[in-house]
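Friendly challenge for the regulars: who can give me the structure tokens for this chain first? No prize, just bragging rights.
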Amino acid sequence: PNYEENRGWFHPTVLNKLVVLKGLIWEEELKVRDTLALAFFSILRDCSSLPMRKPYTYIADNVKPKPEDIVERDVLKIYLEKSKKLTAGRVAYEEQCTELMREQGISPQEFNQWLVVKKADARHLSEEISSTVDCVVTSPPYMGVTDNAGAHRLWYLWHDFGSTLQEDKMLEIGPRWKRKKQNLEQEYIEDMSKSLQQIVAVLKDGGYLCLIIGEPQRAKADILQEIVSLARKRLDLDVCRTYRRTIHKKWFAHPTGGVSVEHIAVFQRS
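First reply, four minutes later:
Bragging rights claimed.
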């Protein structure tokens, strides 16, 4: 798929192997296919000719390798290693679920009703789960730091997810590609306000909300204080505790556009 675009990222031999591998995966039954497909999408960056030392922003910004830098990769080896990790993770998860069912004294059927996974825009959550959640733990996008859709550019080249990369980019909250917009902070706080209103609506009375908030080095305003003020004045949340931690990962604490500090804020619905 998307041959002209893909050949700018992958060696011809790698492209052929990926096509065959994807075809074999999609012949599997759905339950197995999901795990195998996730492994497939997860190796696309490693199978591309982009040097491992290059950050994800090269993909987000569509900066392809030079033609002379297109190299072959061992697709099957990379895929097997990724599959083993994902399989181990799935087994560990199932073991944790089994232990939780034992502790709670519930059957697998009851557990499946209790555990619900939904995909939605945080600014427009379903009313079906209103006032039903005890605790929400989430890390909203760090303003102007990350391009979540762009980082998965290669995924969009290999599969139709029901929306295009450009469509999903336009839905992002405070993405890196908007970092130079004059009204970025205002737009970000407005989107955060909409999201938090929806999140608070799903909490039970007395329920808790834990936010991990990045402190962008480019930000002019104090993002933590903006959100705390929003939570108190407009969302009727009490602030329980706030913690501050320093980030030591060099790629995340990039001096010109990353974050060096994260804040963990715990709120309670009144």
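Residues 75-104 form the longest helix (30 residues). The mean pLDDT is 90. Your move, everyone else.
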